[in-house]
Automatic annotation (TrEMBL):
Location of the HTH cro/C1-type domain: 20-76
Source organism per UniProt: Kitasatospora misakiensis
Cited Pfam families: DUF5753, HTH_31
Region (Disordered): 35-54
Lineage top rank: taxon: Bacteria
The protein's name in its UniProt record: Helix-turn-helix domain-containing protein
Amino acid sequence: MNIKPLAPDSSPQASFGAQLRTQREELRMTQDQLAKRTGYSPGHVSSVETGRKSPTLPFARKVDHAFDTGTKFANLFLDVRASSLLQGFGQYVAQEAKADEIRCFEVGIIPGLLQTKEYAEELAAAALSRGAIGQGQADERLKILAGRQRLLTRQPPPRLFAVLDESCIRRPIGTPGTMAAQLEHLVSVAALPHVTLQVAPYSMGAGRGLDLPIYLLGLPDHTVAAYSESAQQGSYERDPEAVRPLLNAYHHLQVEALPQAASVALIRKVREEVQ
């Protein structure tokens, strides 16, 4: 049998296909058998496994049922849908929509939930010009972001705790006008009763225990989920043993960062320097 080699690292779609094949083979199940259990054709199963066809949520759910894997493939599908973002972020976004509490720390850029439309468009355009994403992915990225930002105006809204490294407010993105409007937006958001905004100043030095972006979700079932990322990889985690040290590090960061009043004052000072 001519089995086509897979390249799981090439895209979330290819990763889904590779994991589908691996799971099926571990269960000693043929493509024909999986097709019969899911109601899809063997050709469809083969095309998804080799990355020629993108999975759908109904297909992913039927695969989970056939494999008895809970929501594993449904969650993997979310990464395919959010393919303009890092792997793992699709799962995070789905859970963020349900969260009662969101804690985030960012380095270098304003957190997505707090970005203005113009600031977000500048970031997407830069990624597009570098060839990191295509136009469709850039549009998808902005659409996903707009959906996430509606969380802050839902009723009741989630409690948001955001710590920004000082580089976030000092790194110029777009024109001076774009950056000035973004900083003004931060000041406005900080005035909302459900938002706590802090800046981790450069003066913290090595005392800043987190070096990479981290997002922590307080979910309705009283569990905490974490999403962290490097330049090329994202990781969504719900294991309490893995999440606990990240939550502890975040609490330490909040204590050491500037209080909100001092943070807002610093943002206003940087705003005055922009133009």
